[in-house]
């Protein structure tokens, strides 16, 4: 489904962040990205979410070069960035509605689907703008926004940062359900390092060319 071909990212002369990485990721998997600070996890996920371009090599999604056809690819992608980037003046519910409408996938089930995901994340009773939310609530809003699009690929950069233990459990449940639907999930996390069984596969950073 996702295929990396000789992927290299180099910000400045000298040592690249990674070089010549070739691998394939299939559907219905949770892949964990583990490694120390500065080892390249965010760089890798930014490439896979077309927030950055490779120095060389390519990423194919079902044969489509994602950096050449970003709009076609991103229709299939749910994303949680480590940096918060949410509109402050919308409520969580308004944001999810806007996302579905802007992707032209709003239908008669959308109100229920939004209610369900916001209920699961205990955000449904908060009828105020996102600008007033706590850090954890903003992260939960990002997570809800990533799930609501019924993604084929979920890219999550530190989705658990700032979440309390019970909310983490809820997110694990959502991720397991999403995997069962056939979604490919790639997530970086410092805190999941102690629970490697959760992942179908772990990729250790820094990445080494095989
Ligand atoms: N836009 C950029 N320009 C130059 N260097 C960058 C840029 N973004 C990241 N880097 C460098 O690339 C290296 C990898 O950073 P990256 O953020 O990918 O690591 P990370 O594994 O996600 O770290 P953390 O666990 O701290 O989030 C670091 O040395 C960082 O300083």
From TrEMBL:
One of its GO terms (molecular function) is ATP binding. The keyword Hydrolase does not apply. SMART domains: AAA (SM00382). Residues 2-210 form the ABC transporter domain. CDD domains: ABC_DR_subfamily_A (cd03230). The keyword Methyltransferase does not apply. PANTHER family: ABC TRANSPORTER ATP-BINDING PROTEIN ALBC-RELATED. It comes from the Bacteria. InterPro entries: AAA+_ATPase, ABC_transporter-like_ATP-bd, ABC_Transporter_VariousFunc, P-loop_NTPase. Gene3D superfamilies: P-loop containing nucleotide triphosphate hydrolases. It comes from Rhodohalobacter sulfatireducens. PROSITE patterns: ABC_TRANSPORTER_2. SUPFAM superfamilies: P-loop containing nucleoside triphosphate hydrolases. This is ABC transporter ATP-binding protein. Keywords: ATP-binding, Nucleotide-binding, Transport.
